[in-house]
From TrEMBL:
<protein>
    <recommendedName>
        <fullName>G-protein coupled receptors family 1 profile domain-containing protein</fullName>
    </recommendedName>
</protein>
<keyword id="KW-0472">Membrane</keyword>
<dbReference type="GO" id="GO:0008188">
    <property type="term" value="F:neuropeptide receptor activity"/>
</dbReference>
<dbReference type="InterPro" id="IPR000276">
    <property type="entry name" value="GPCR_Rhodpsn"/>
</dbReference>
<feature type="transmembrane region" description="Helical">
    <location>
        <begin position="95"/>
        <end position="125"/>
    </location>
</feature>
<keyword id="KW-1133">Transmembrane helix</keyword>
<dbReference type="GO" id="GO:0005886">
    <property type="term" value="C:plasma membrane"/>
</dbReference>
<keyword id="KW-0297">G-protein coupled receptor</keyword>
<dbReference type="Pfam" id="PF00001">
    <property type="entry name" value="7tm_1"/>
</dbReference>
<feature type="transmembrane region" description="Helical">
    <location>
        <begin position="191"/>
        <end position="210"/>
    </location>
</feature>
<feature type="transmembrane region" description="Helical">
    <location>
        <begin position="31"/>
        <end position="52"/>
    </location>
</feature>
<keyword id="KW-0807">Transducer</keyword>
<feature type="transmembrane region" description="Helical">
    <location>
        <begin position="146"/>
        <end position="171"/>
    </location>
</feature>
<keyword id="KW-0812">Transmembrane</keyword>
<keyword id="KW-0675">Receptor</keyword>
<dbReference type="InterPro" id="IPR017452">
    <property type="entry name" value="GPCR_Rhodpsn_7TM"/>
</dbReference>
<feature type="domain" description="G-protein coupled receptors family 1 profile">
    <location>
        <begin position="1"/>
        <end position="207"/>
    </location>
</feature>
Length: 250
């Protein structure tokens, strides 16, 4: 959860740092506040699971199986005409629908809009004064590099999280609770959860591959050095923004 909120806030930081470059120094001062806010939001979203998941044990013939199981409240709806009952998991369904919206659909929308405006801003920027051909080529190369990185970040996020969101929607809104899941669902759910976690693993490599400053900061962190080194973001190195974009912290 924290990784999703982090990606969303990074998109917002880049948006304000490029589109509203003169206010970048104001945003920088809120870095610590943003980190605390990300963790508070993550704890808030995950907190219901503390109360509605319980430890269970099942004793088989030769082994004891231990696992955590949902303990969400259920409503039993009786139909006197058909003399049947329906188990309504409204609380669980509401929570997981909220999770899908808060951790996938909203972040996707925010990142898409922010990166789209950034790309348009970069490509529509006017180069002040006269520049030699070498400078223009360097600027064009940097712009393409920024666009590719932003597209990859958003694409990887959607690829990694879409299967898990699909499994949640299927389990809560498509599957009939009166019957067991199909055989394909268990391995698919297992795969989708690890694919979502894989997004957090791959993101540092994406940033390191496109941003030398991030790579140097990460190497410095691994060596136990000072990580508070100031640097210009890759997008701020685009020539048309060098005069207005401020420095930000790792």
């Amino acid at each position: 959860m924290a990784s999703v909120f982090t990606l969303t806030f990074i998109a917002c930081d880049r948006f304000f740092g490029i589109v509203y470059a003169m206010k970048a120094h104001f945003i920088e001062r809120r870095a610590s506040f943003t980190i605390v806010l990300i963790w508070l939001l993550s704890i808030a979203v995950a907190s219901p699971l503390i109360f509605y998941r319980g430890y269970q044990e099942v004793q088989w013939k030769d082994v004891t199986e231990s696992f955590c199981m949902d303990t969400w409240p259920v409503n039993i709806i009786h139909n006197p005409e058909t003399k049947t009952s329906i188990v309504d998991h409204r609380a669980r369904r509401t929570y997981f629908m909220f999770v899908c919206v808060a951790l996938f659909f909203v972040p996707c929308l925010v990142m898409f809009c922010a990166y789209l405006v950034i790309i348009v801003t970069l490509w529509s920027a006017q180069v002040p004064g006269e520049r030699i051909s070498k400078d223009i080529k360097s600027q064009t190369k940097m712009r393409k590099r920024v666009v590719v990185m932003l597209v990859i970040i958003l694409t990887v996020f959607m690829i990694c999280w879409s299967p898990l969101v699909g499994s949640l929607i299927y389990a809560e809104f498509v599957h009939d609770n009166l019957h067991q899941f199909a055989q394909w669902y268990a391995p698919y759910e297992f795969f989708s959860k690890y694919l979502a976690h894989f997004n957090s693993f791959i993101n540092p490599f994406i940033y390191a591959g496109f941003n030398n400053n991030f790579k140097k900061g990460f190497q410095n962190l691994c060596r136990g050095g000072d990580t508070r080194t100031r640097y210009n973001t890759m997008v701020s190195r685009v020539d048309s923004f060098q005069s207005s974009t401020h420095m930000t912290k790792v």
